[in-house]
Amino acid sequence: MLRQYELVEKVLEYDPDADEAMLNRAYVYTVQKHGTQKRASGDPYFSHPVEVAGLMTDLKLDMATIITALLHDTVEDTLATIEDIEAHFGPEVARLVDGVTKLSKIEAMPENERAAENLRKFLLAMSEDIRVLLVKLADRLHNMRTLHFIKSPEKRQRIARETMDIYAPLAERVGMYEYMHEMQALAFCELEPEAHATIANRLDQLRSQDGGQVDAIALTMKQRLAEAGLKVEVYGREKHPFSIWHKMAERHVSFEQVTDIMAFRVLTESEGDCYQALGILHTTWQFLPGRFKDYISTPKSNGYRSLHTSLMYENSMRVEVQIRTREMHRTNEFGLAAHWAYKQGDRPDGEVGWLRDLIEIVDASHDAEELLEHTRMAIYQDRIFAFTPKGALFQLPKGATAVDFAFAVHTNLGMQTAGVKINGRHMPLRTPLANGDVVEIIKNPHASPQLSWLSFVVTGKARAAIRRAVRMKERAEVAEIGSKLFDEIAARVPARIGKKAIRAAVERLGMEEPDDLMYAIGAAKIADREVMEALVPGCTAGIEEDEHWERRESAISIRGLTPGVAFDLAPCCHPVPGDRIVGIRRKGETVLVHAIDCLMLASGVDSDWIDLAWGNQSSGATGQLSVTIYDRLGTLAEMAGIFAQNKANIITLMQAHIDHPFVTYDVEVEVQDVGHLNRIVSALRASDAVAQAERQ
Fold first, then answer.
1. Which of 318, 467, 518, 595 is in Cβ range 3.0-4.6 Å of 575 for a Cys bridge?
2. How many whole angstroms separate alpha carbon 239 and alpha carbon 191?
3. Are 610 and 591 in contact (CB under 8 A)?
4. b/e map of 8-18 (b: 16 or more CB within 10 Å)?
5. How far apart are CA 97 and CA 105, in angstroms?
6. In what order do the strands lie in the sheet with 383-387?
């Protein structure tokens, strides 16, 4: 553990103007507040914040960040408050400490909700000042270094999994690869101890058989580059056990088949030297096609810059080589933190694009599971590059589609996506993008995200925005049904109901807006009697609890509402416009629309029935038919032709059974209304190829 004077000296080395008295005060404050608290290792608890502060000094961060590291656990684990911190160390430190501190109220939540709420608060604080992230990453790194002292295997596993899923990818996203590699190595050792031990043993064997080969290869490369007049540093290393394990799992290969276990770094004086060194290496040893990446001309979103190539060295040994300048190397190892040496006077930028995307995800996520799911999607980084028609570059995860691209450009563009051209050709929205694709989004101001998009989008930002839009649409349409039912309820009370009475009723029911009431009525979350009593207190006195309420004579129109959102069409009878319909309303569920003659209606005898109508000029639904054709050559094509002649699109066609010489198919078909469906049935029955056609 760093002693007080050692910590102060480390800060003064790179910042001679630092407030030494405040640093000393912060050190003493954390020691006093944590007092006799102990860590699982038996060390005094204050050793942890002191070590975290030491990690921050290694990055040469400003004094406010160092003090935040010293104090980051005081509010969570001692009697200190944010107000105390502000009084002693100022508003900037208090704001940073609050960003890192976990909310005390989340301790009573279930594990997944607690993790999600903690992550939500952390991301929001990080968006205002990314130094919050730097302290949190150092905090997690030191906790991982001492993870083995925790006795509970379940707790160790949980912390290691959270580190692997959240914090290591976050370290990668800000380019702190040194932190990322160590977190992954420590988490991997805990999560997959057998795999870690096996790979470590194999590496030990290779090392014992190596005979200094890594150093020899590095020296040969350095000599070859020096002969060309380049001043470089070259050093080799083995890949980390986790990196090897990940490659084995990704490529489905054994340890022996991972041929690029050794990797070499070439550090040059300038950017031009990087490309010159690349040319020399490629002309000296065989280059492996498809393994070259230029992250200098096209940096990763976290600022990472380097040339990557793979060479076939002597004796058919394959090695990876990374070529970069010394400045690039420092940035690549410590990422955004490398830019913030105090002497440069720089301040963190919380408005980097990927971080704004995370904040949108926080706003759009509905619950704990969604937040964790969307965030994991957003921070993992196996990327492809795609361009707008004007040449703007966007990085996306592998497997991303045109819809993901649209939301990456701008949320509003994603919301209005109606089609796409990829490399000038119209393509389906679900088409996965490839590196270098030029993507033109066709938008329509009247378009809206579809629930089906969730089956193919891969980015957290797109998924969160789509779910939010679908929820808002569902709420609006359910509230529209509720407002029509409200008119019916209001007609029963012995008073004329105006806006003032509605506002009073909303207040009595503990709601905020009239829309909340309409939604509750539409979703059957509130009984008619409760609404009447809220509108006119006492008006239901003397009325029996189970007394049947007469519905109004005019049916409620569902025209303009979206199937699958405000209501669902019953799969048992597949009603289409023109059928007489009723709705079954159950608490917390969407209205289920049945044809009036559906046999399944008997199962809803205890439910709330609503008299529904399609509304004028309603059109478009799915009809379901059972068609029996003769089992001979060409009859299936003739049946399909009848659908085409009647301008009906087949959605699904499934063989139900064969009873030679007949074959029966279940067919789902798009129709305009019941008249359209009846014409199709008549045409099928008139065909010599069809033995029987019935609507199901």
1. 595
2. 19
3. yes
4. bebbeeebeeb
5. 17
6. 393-397, 383-387, 437-443, 417-422, 425-427
User: Counting Cβ atoms within 10 Å, is residue 605 exposed (0-12), middle (13-18) or buried (19+)?
Assistant: exposed
10 lies in the same domain as 133 = yes
Domain assignment present for residue 45? The answer is: yes
Q: Determine, yes or no, domain membership for 552.
A: no
C-alpha to C-alpha distance for 72 and 682, rounded to whole angstroms = 76
Asked whether residue 142 falls in the same domain as residue 44, the answer is yes
- Selecting among 19, 20, 43, 77, the annotated active-site residue is 77
Phi/psi region, residue 662 (left: phi>0; alpha: psi -120 to 50; beta: rest), is beta
User: Is position 579 annotated as part of the catalytic site?
Assistant: no
Residues 50 and 137 in one domain: yes
The question of whether 113 is a catalytic residue gets the answer no
For 406-415, the pLDDT digits (tens) are 998 888 999 9
| Exposure string for 257-279, b = 16+ CB within 10 A, e = fewer | ebebbbbbbbbbeebebbbbbbe
Instruction: Output the pTM of the full model.
Output: 0.56
CATH at 8: 1.10.3210.10
DSSP letter at 416 equals T
**To 10 degrees, the CA torsion angle through 597, 600, 601, 605?**
150
Q: Answer yes or no: is 198 within a domain.
A: no
Q: Is residue 170 part of a domain?
A: no
What totals of helices (H) and strands (E) does the chain contain, helices first?
27, 20
Q: Give yes or no for a contact between 281 and 233, defined as CB atoms under 8 angstroms apart.
A: no
Say if residue 311 is in the same domain as residue 358: no
Assess contact for 592 and 609: CB atoms under 8 A. Answer: no
Question: From the candidates 76, 86, 515, 611, which is the catalytic residue?
Answer: 76
Name which residue leads in pLDDT, 337 or 235.
235
Residue after which a domain boundary falls, among 590, 612, 634: 612
Q: Find the domain containing 87 and state its range.
A: 4-149
Number of domains the chain is built from: 6
601 & 689 share domain: no
Using a 10 angstrom Cβ sphere, with 0-12 exposed, 13-18 middle and 19 or more buried, the burial of residue 621 is buried
Residues 22 and 145 in one domain: yes
Considering the domain architecture, whether residues 509 and 568 belong to the same structural domain is answered as no
- Each residue's pLDDT tens digit, 596-614: 878 777 665 556 777 777 7
Task: Identify whether residues 137 and 47 lie together within a single domain.
Answer: yes
